[in-house]
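SAMPLE LOG
Freezer: B-3
Tube label: C17
Construct: single chain, 288 aa
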Amino acid sequence: MKSEIALLYNVFKIRIGMAIMMSALAGLAVTPGASLSTWEITILALAVLGSSAAAGAFNHVIERDLDAQMTRTRNRPFVTGHFKAGPAWYLGITGLLAISVGAAAYVLNGMVALYVFLGAFVYGVVYTVWLKRKTVWNIVVGGLSGSFAVLAGAAAVDPGLSVPAVILAVVLFLWTPPHFWSLAAALREDYGKAGVPMLPLVVGDKVAARIILAHTVLLVGLAMVPTLYGLGWFYWAGAAVGGSYFLYHSLQYVRDPSPKKAMKNFFASLVQLGVLVLGALIGAMTGL
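STRUCTURE (predicted):
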């Protein structure tokens, strides 16, 4: 039973879903307006998590041929045959997405539901089906998935969206490419075997490292801008500390564009996002 739960946890990409859910709550936190009830916040969080899980499972089903070619993913259950791709999985995935979008529409509003849907659609269809195998721009467009989560959280308070929320959504858009490009650089042999045209394989590690640094500089600078719109010290500290950590590792990667440094930069991107979101949430709860 434990092993089945662990497999489902990975198939539905719950760890990634939790990060996307926290991004939605950050969008909520930086948006001025009336406070939501605990019930409304819970539905927002579960709707974003559910839609992300549906997209993650769809990604596993569709990419089982690619996963079979990569060392990192060749033991995934749709590759090994532990789970069989078929109508039941497609129905379950569609049902989970429909429940998530429907709950957001019923409890919150139509704009929240739209952003919840778009986040899953961009990752599941636009990125996974249309772009990943065809273009180096795959994850650049795919970065919109996290941005829609931020907008969903913001729209729960104000469907018109505030400036800080829009800026935070752009930060998430800029964050996703260097995050995934760093991973692709660290695992370039895997992506090369699968024929996925990720940036480091197309332009080389040295050029990719510089592009990653440029993205990092831009997103870290932009992440500081919401402090001009009334966000407090905790947000500022989260943006500054997390951003500095990510910048440091991006610079180290430019100096030594090796797989080891690329993986460190990948983890630094996770730290940056986590600290930024935490700062936004604590700032909203304390008013500081």
